[in-house]
Amino acid sequence: MRPRVILRLARREVRALFDAPGGPLVVGIFWLVSSFILVAHLHQFRVETLEIAQSGRLRSGPLGVHINDAVVRPFLLNLGSILVFFVPLLTMRTFAEERRSGGLELLLSQPLCGAEALLGKFLGATLALGACLAILVPQGVALAFVSHPDWGAVGAGVLGLICLGTLFLAVGILVSVLSRSQVEAAVLGLGTLLAVVIGPGAIRPSGARGEAFVEFISIMTRFQDFTRGVVDPAHLLFLGGLTLVVLAVALRCLDLVRWQG
Amino acid sequence: MTVAEDRGQTVAAGAETLVEARNLHKSYGPVTAVADLSFAVRRGEILGLLGPNGAGKSTALRMLVGFQYPDAGRVFLAGADVLRDGRRARASLGYLPESVPLYAEMPARRYLEFFAAIKGVRDTRKEIARVTERLDLSRVLHRPCGNLSRGYRQRVGLAQALLGDPAVLILDEPTSGLDPNQIRDFRLLLRELGREKAVLLSTHILPEALEVCDRILILSRGRTVAEGSPAVLAGGDAALHWARFRAPSPPPPGECERFGLVVDAASGSDGAVFLRVRHELNTDEARALLRYALDHGWDLREWGAGAAGLERVFRRLTLGEED
User: Fold this and answer.
1) What residues make up the domain containing A193?
2) What whole-number distance in Å separates Cα of residue B168 and Cα of residue B92?
3) How far is CA B276 from CA B245, B263, B289, B303, in A?
4) CA nearest A117: which of A15, A18, A7?
5) Residue B114 forms contact with A (CB below 8 Å)
6) Scanning every residue of chain A, which has its alpha carbon at the shortest distance from the alpha carbon of B172?
7) Is B320 inside a domain boundary?
8) Is residue B155 less than 8 Å (CB to CB) from chain A?
9) Residues of A whose CB is below 8 A from B117
């Protein structure tokens, strides 16, 4: 595996995304939507604290409601949910578009292995996700101006969001490998991610073992722990491991595509 | 020097085999795309892969470049097994697919830089200067690939294939979409490249195969139905000539019959007519016809040799048509 080749592929992915009008549009919309959600939560927080102050229920602590619980946590949970819709837009072209245009044929006839191609595209998509999440920096600065959040818990939540996002990217890339067009990849990616996120919650297990299993496979339950400020190594291992497993499946599927033609 | 004159070269005996396909087989469900395909291309040789649509040419090329895996059989490029040692095998390969997939938003220079980096070219700037000078691309390097004309797109694709000076070139329909001048330039370039490299050329254009290739392999329904030099496949020199004349008046029916001539059209009020030979002529018939035409003051309007014979063979082998 040659890191230089992987980086070069990643660079091309990012450039391809941002040279086309769709890429900046996706990032711009993500920034707008996330900022709107943050402002809405901050507004709600302000209203609630004013109501508490006016009702005289102010007892222990400065306001009785902490900004992490009232704003940061629901904000990050919402961001986790909207990634389900945005990530397929970042990954849809990675393989599906190359396959449609014949670019994949040319790329895989170069002296590189499938894993390099896959990791290059995954890294490129991760950088594009990074561009989306970069809005968290000015949003954090804005938050610091209006309140005093627990930055440790915020950091844990952001770490969870990054883990969740990279797992979603791996799923999006897997779907793109199996798709023949960008639209197909976007729609299938959205459907798959919705199933991944909503699926475990829809299962009604009977018995403690069943409940434990559903909790174990529930990605969002683990993400919720991150947003509470809990960085559980088991969660990191689970999300990171699952991302690697999905990428390995994508690599195998890329091989299958080459067998099937 | 014309391309035809340049074709005088022969592949050195014992030249290194750079492309070797052994018993390749590929099926898509019940449909056999390629069956038991074996051939080799040596350094300094241009092999033409001919066949009608659906004959399995593209599948064969995709297996050769390692994009598709064969169900059975092996491919070696410069001695390296494409399946087992793919990266080393493809390091000696330059490939131009039929569709020339360029990244539309990317300027041509950046496109070439990208592929130079992937190929591990050390001095990217120098290498890009070399291939762009050879293909006369310097003027368009700053333009996005999506804004280039078909001819330039084809040349950028070829420049990509030439990066790193690979020993093996595999080109799928490289002249489709080019104008006649570009086709001629391209064929000259191909002959030049064919002196040093092993070139595998997939084409539908029979005159092109005849003009450029040292050897031709005809595929039909995934199988090799003929292989040999263009002259041998076309039946030697014996059936390769065709012609068109302008005669001051229609020749007697007997002469028409003798030379297989038919009247194409009248050329004006002076009674002159255009004549063409109905079937290709062998060398003796062609010589006799030329002598007759000269004696009777006919103007020679068109003369050709070669492809008609190959075309007949091609049709017979791929469609089962008789002469």
Assistant:
1) 3-260
2) 6
3) 6, 7, 11, 10
4) A7
5) yes
6) A106
7) no
8) no
9) 4-5, 8
**Is the dihedral angle over the CA atoms A159, A160, A166, A169 positive or is it negative?**
negative
Look-up of token digits 């399946």: B83
A interface with B, Cβ–Cβ < 8 A, is: 4-5, 8-9, 12, 15-16, 19-20, 98, 101-113, 255, 258-261
Residue pLDDT tens, chain B, 323 long: 334 444 444 455 566 889 999 999 999 888 888 988 999 999 989 999 988 888 888 899 999 998 888 999 999 999 899 888 888 999 999 999 988 888 888 899 999 999 999 998 988 999 999 999 888 888 898 998 888 888 888 889 999 999 999 999 999 988 877 788 888 888 888 888 888 899 999 987 777 888 888 888 988 888 888 888 877 776 654 445 678 888 888 888 888 888 888 887 776 677 788 888 876 676 777 788 888 888 888 888 877 765 566 776 777 777 765 54
Report which residue type is found at A97. Answer: E
Which residues from A are below 8 Å from B119, CB to CB? 110-111
Q: B274 touching A, CB under 8 A?
A: no
Pair B63, B202 in one domain: yes
For residues B145 and B216, membership in a common domain is answered with yes
**Count of pairs with CB atoms under 8 A, one residue in A, one in B:** 79
**Total count of domains within chain B:** 2
B39 lies in a domain? yes
Structure tokens, B260: 């297989």
Task: State the CATH number of the domain containing residue B86.
Answer: 3.40.50.300
| Cα distance between residue B200 and residue B167, in whole Å | 11
Check CB contact under 8 Å for B66 and A113: no
CA B99 vs. chain centroid, Å, equals 16
Q: B27 and B159: one domain? A: yes
Task: Return the closest-CA partner of residue A164 out of A95, A242, A217, A232.
Answer: A242
**If you write DSSP's letter for every residue of B18-41 in order, what string do you get?**
EEEEEEEEEEETTEEEEEEEEEEE
Indicate whether B10 and B80 sit together in one domain: yes
- How many Å lie between the alpha carbon of A97 and the closest alpha carbon of chain B? 11
Q: Which residues on B lie below 8 Å from A18 (Cβ)?
A: none
Full residue range of the structural domain in which residue B283 is found: 241-305
Q: Tell me, yes or no, whether B294 and B166 share the same domain.
A: no
Task: Verify whether the Cβ–Cβ distance A111 to B114 is below 8 Å.
Answer: no
The whole-angstrom distance between A94's CA and the closest CA on chain B is 13
Q: Using the beta-carbon criterion (under 8 Å), do B62 and A113 form an inter-chain contact?
A: no
